[in-house]
Amino acid sequence: MFIVREQQNPDQAPRVGYVPGGFDMLHVGHINVLIAARDLCDHLVVGVATDESLKRMKGRLPVIPHVERMRLVEALRIVDEVVPDLDQDKRLAWRNRRFDVLFKGDDWKDTPKGERLEREMKEVGAEVVYLPYTRSTSSTILRCFLAQELGMGPMDDQVIGDHASERSLPL
Question: With a threshold of 0.90, does the pTM exceed it?
Answer without folding.
Answer: no
